[in-house]
Every structure is written in C-alpha cells, then in structure tokens.
Amino acid sequence: MGLRKILGSRYWGLLITAMLMLFGYWMIEDTNKPDQHGLTAKMDYGANQGYFEGINDLDDMHDEVREDRDNITSEIVHPPQEEILRIDKEYFERYKEIQERIRIRMEKIEKVCRSLMVKHKPFFEIYQFNEIEASWCPVFKAGSTTWKYYFLDRFKPDHRTRNLAELGSRRLTMGSRSSIDKERMRQLYSNENPNNIRFTVVRHPLSRLISHVHNAAKDREMVAMKNQWIYRAMVVRMYQHRTWRSSRQWQTEFNKYFTWLQNGRQGPEHHSPNNPLFNPPYPTLSELINFIKRTRVANGHWNPAWSWCNMCTNKFDYVIKLEEEPMELWFLLDKLGLWKDRALFLARSNTSNSTAKINSELNLLQDHQKKWINSYYENDMKMFGYDRVT
Question: Above 60 in pLDDT, residue 99?
Fold first, then answer.
C-alpha cells in the first residue's frame, strides 16, 4: 500500500508543505554561511539589516578592545559608530567588486613572477601567527606600524618596546624551510601552519619614499637614522662648497646638532648659518634617492615590496593596497577572521600621501632620478598596478 493512501490526501499535502519549508530553511542557512576565514563573503546587506541593528553601541566593542590592549589606548582615537556602519554598508554592497579586484591583482603577481624566474632569496620578512592562521610581511611605510602594534599587543602583551624585533621568534627563515606545497607551488616552513593565510599591504613606491623621508625629518627619527643613511646622504652637500671641504667645522657642528636634537632641542643651536649640512637641516627626497642609487643598501623602508616579501617563492594569498583602504582593509580583516577588531584598525587608519604633496616632491626630482624610481620599482608597479613616475 502506498504512503499516500496510508496518510490520506490531507496529511499528504501537509507532509509535502513541511518538507518544502525544511528545504527552504536549509538553503537560507547554507547561503549565509561564512567562508572558512571570513564572516561576510556571502552576506547581502539588504538581507542582513538585522546585523547592523544589533550593533547599537560600538563603544561596547571598543571597551572589549581596551581590556586586551591597555598599553595602547592613549595612542588610538576611536572612530564614531556612524563611520564604522557607513564603511560596513559600503563594504557589503561592493564586496564582489573588491573580491574581483584583488583576485585579478593576485593573478597579475603570479604572471609577473613566472616571467621573472626568481630563485629563493636568502633574506625576506614574514612573521607567522599560527593562532589565527595568518602570516604577515611588513612592507614598511605601507601601514606596517598598524599591524605591528596589533600583533604586539595581542600576541606579546609584555613587550618592552614597539620594535619588530619583539616578534623575532615568529619570523620565517631560510633555516626553517621544509617542503614545497606542490598544489599552490609555494615554500613551506617548519614553524608555520601550512594553512596560514599569507598577506601584506603595499603602497606606491614614490609614496613610500616620500613618507620615509618626511618621517626621517622628525627629531627622533633623525637621531635614530643618522648613522644608517642620513649622515651619508646629507654630507654630500658639503662637497658642493669648496670653502668647507678642508674644514672639520662642518662635521663638529653637525654632530652637535644631533646631540641638540637628542636632548629635546635644549639650549641654543651652535652652528654657522652657511654650513651646507644645514640648508635645510634635514634630508630631502632627492638625497634619499641618490643615497640608495649610490650605495644599494637594502632597507625595509625602501626595498621593493615584492622582493622584501619574496613573493614569487612564498606565494601570498592576499596583497591589498593602502590606497584602497578601508574597503580592501575590511576585506582582509574579514578573510583573516579579525572582523571584530576592525574599529581598532580604522582608529589607526593609514592614509596615502595627498596628490599635492606627491606632485610638490616630484617637481623637485631630476629626470634621471625619476627614471631610477621606475627601474628600481618596476616589478612593484607591474604586480600591483601602479603608474610609472613621469
């Protein structure tokens, strides 16, 4: 006897209706499931307005962040709730566009790498955070300080300094190489979870140089970077003035100047007004470029991002651009499972140099210096879609 005859036409109809409702519920649940490392990859803002209505007070989230990061609360200015919600809304609406843009970028990086035939470089900067299945390459002057502070405060709350060296035990090294992931064709390391998402943030090379030289003009940075490059870059001015070449007065005054900076500018400045090292008394972009050209010294503040991270061998999952924050930042935090901390990242949000600032610096460069920038950072520009300097 058939099931329909046992139940009768009335109950048969009820059974069919119940089955359709269960199927519909299952489809809704499946559609709203997050990706493995993300919260919102399949969310639609219009269908999930309750998500925003549930966040009535982001100050609660800020308080939760403060409890974990007591050491840095004085350094952050929390963004208003309305700003967070505005960015959330735009992110959900533009999710597919952002995802596609980053996908195309990663394909471009892979294509350029295949054309380069690069071997594994002995030096690169990547740090693993296996607890959250993430590995990060800090490209200096591209928002790396924000990420450094976040990782220090979360994974080493007892840190004594803000230096990256505090995370040294998490760094991947040549000595920790293990095997090659043949499916993804990337180098694996014994101290890194093979499922970690590798990521970094990049920035236009010229903006990085401008940011570094402007930061280097600050008293603290002038003192810290004096012997690394500032002294050797600025001393070239002295050779343009014959009257100062045979005198050691210029060096004596220069050293006194740095001591004056180190002491918080206490007391009067003791140097001659025509000392070539003090016109101006800080390094310029032109001097930085000439120094890098002349010495070829490697430094994370100006090394090309692709080589600093050894992207062609280590194969990254996501490379976002500082110029595209906060949208691409939101995407990355989503994929890393750090969505709840997005307000903290926005509080330390980085901005690219203004067009006016870039143009003013660019106008001071000579043609051979612009040509060098395009040559030195050629692969960065190709991989990340940046315009050449003209």
Answer: yes
